[in-house]
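Per reviewer request, we include the raw input and output of the structure prediction for the construct analysed in the revised manuscript.
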Amino acid sequence: MITELDPAVRRLALNFGRQLRRIKDDFVERDTAVDVIALAALCREHVLLIGPPGSAKTGVLERFSLMLHARYFRYLLTKFTEPDELFGTIDVPSFHAGHLKLKTEGMLPQAQIAFLDEVFNGSSAILNTLLTLINERTFQNGAQRERADLITLLGASNDIPDDPMLRAFCDRFLFRYSVHYVSDEAVGDVLRLGWSRELAALEPAEPAPDLADFPLGDLSELQRAVGGIDLTPVHHTLISILRAFRDEDVSFSDRRAVKAQKAIAAMALLDARGRAEPQDLSVLAHLWADPGDRLTIRQVIKAHDVPEPARDGAVMDLGELENMVRKTGLDLPQVESAEEVREIQRRLGRWLADVRDFHPEREDLLEMLGRLQAEALDRLERSLAG
């Protein structure tokens, strides 16, 4: 093990952080999401983003893949998606020659960075092939097993599935992060940055913007450096935390515990350090398997003097949130326009996500928010019909 980074590796790590900062500056309240994707890439692991449509998940990952000059594949899965839409169609000349082979050029098997929206909508045939691809980095193309260059796959979903078969597939995503709409205080920043991008799209002849740049070769150097990070300073604390997870019945498998060491090492490397420090253990908050364990994991790591993990956007005080929810319940019957109802829906979604993440024990508040969401949806449908 090394206690200090090689100067060349340190320069790469610092440059990686600078390039990530340039991506963060182009999005509002997405700093932690960018860091989680970067950590997954350093570990060659995969990320599951939980959140509603329109929360910049696609934009963030596309910018990340552009930064790396990586081959990128994106697709929205539905229950009608066919395997050839992801993995390629039959190569007709090979088929006529008696060999079954797929044309994978430009498809998922040849991608280095991939994004599958609504990832749990895939058929069993798709999910089984994905499981091999993300676990073993291989793809069975006819009679040949081909190597895949996949660095990280980002899956997105509105929620974690209840189906046991899907939960097994879900467990292969080491990193988890809940992405919400931006806080009310940041709406102005969203409009400003979004408007700049819209104007740029109207000027296709203009030079391309100065995007973040970090070649794949440099990323490979950092990936190799992850294994050289000294975890000794946090070893005993990590063991104590994992034991506490068991005492609290947190769902955290041995496989996830082993892989957590990579995530901790990557946290140190992202900060251009050769030794892990207590704050690096905060990454455990992004490695949960069961959504119901999120608060418990945060409480356990906080009890071990680990700093609170970063989160994009401020969390509203519980008392203030309750007052806002009750006020919304009183105001909603008076709202008439579809635009106002949509705004209420957005706020309710944000509050519901906060309660699920940080106050899951408040079942009364969760029930109230769910009821108001249903009422808002009903009013929106009636408003649009009118």
